[in-house]
Specification:
The protein has one domain (21-128, 168-274). Helix 3 packs across helix 8 (168-189) and helix 4 (68-76) packs antiparallel against helix 5 (84-98). It is globular and about 60 Å long. The chain has 13 helices and two strands; from the N terminus they run αααααααααβαααβα. The protein has a two-stranded parallel sheet with strand order 1-2. It is an all-alpha fold.
């Protein structure tokens, strides 16, 4: 994406170039931390079998599992690692676990970046058809091929599970993923809900201030206005971008719970006003 084409927000080109440096080491450290959390929550599920607190362990494991979406997001931008094969490989694994094919998601997400908060063209608000025959065939071929590969993997896992008569895939993957999805949806809701419908990245996208544990789990995605303003900048440099952007007209929230309370109050007020 051409940085100069992004409206309003500007940093010196050399500053952006320096902040956009990818790092295999930083990516590996972040991914390793997330996998360690996933292993720890998976161990809690294993230890909780037959105990009343198994449901809590499944929920925790599901949240950690579903937030691999943030790893997928960073990898489809190819900013998680300096190595393109690493970005694409990790994106494929995360997409397979989340049943979100990375090729499809890349097409969807880049259109979202290009047309953020445009009611007619942002695919998060509406899904426009391909504009040309070439675009149609490219999208169809890639998405169909990817879907077939993923279905082959899922069917193989199902067949092995049935053959061995084991429920590990349900216990450690399917059920936790279903339990964790609402938390991911609420997290993603904070990115643009209630923001301006315009082309200014600092007003159409929200940055949410949160604690270090959430920033670790979410690959720094709470710095979302920074990410939309400069999508070439990797996750580990977004805090530095935040320090350089003007604070006067930014859309921010003091935390995810505070934001959800605010959104609920607004919805209740709108309902009362419509009566």
């Amino acid at each position: 994406m051409d940085i100069d084409a992004l409206p309003v927000v500007r940093l010196e080109r050399e500053t952006v170039r320096r902040l956009s440096q990818r790092s295999d080491a930083r990516g590996a450290l972040q991914l390793g931390s997330h996998l360690a959390l996933l292993a720890a929550s998976g161990w809690l599920v294993w230890a909780g079998r037959g105990h009343a607190w198994l449901a809590a362990a499944l929920l925790l494991h599901g949240v950690v599992l579903c937030f691999l979406f943030c790893a997928l997001h960073e990898c489809i931008h190819r900013t998680a690692f300096a190595s393109r094969p690493l970005n694409d490989g990790i994106a494929w694994v995360c997409g397979a676990l989340l049943v979100l094919p990375p090729g499809y998601f890349r097409l969807f997400h880049f259109a979202h970046h290009r047309f953020t908060q445009n009611r007619a063209r942002d695919p998060e608000l509406a899904v426009p058809p391909p504009a040309t025959l070439r675009a149609y065939w490219l999208r169809a071929v890639e998405v169909v091929r990817e879907a077939r590969m993923l279905w082959a993997c899922y069917l193989a896992i199902g067949a092995v599970s049935l053959y061995l008569q084991r429920a590990d895939a349900l216990l450690y993957w399917v059920v936790p993923a279903l339990l964790g999805q609402p938390f991911l949806r609420l997290f993603l809701l904070a990115e643009h809900t209630g923001c301006a419908v315009d082309e200014d990245m600092l007003s159409n996208t929200r940055t949410t201030y949160t604690n270090a544990a959430v920033r670790l789990l979410t690959w720094r995605m709470p710095y979302h206005a920074e990410h939309h303003s400069f999508p070439s900048v990797p996750f580990h440099a977004l805090a530095r971008v935040s320090a350089l952007l003007p604070a006067t007209r930014r859309v921010t929230a003091p935390g995810y719970l505070a934001l959800q309370r605010q959104l609920l109050r607004q919805l209740c007020a709108a309902k009362q006003a419509s009566r």
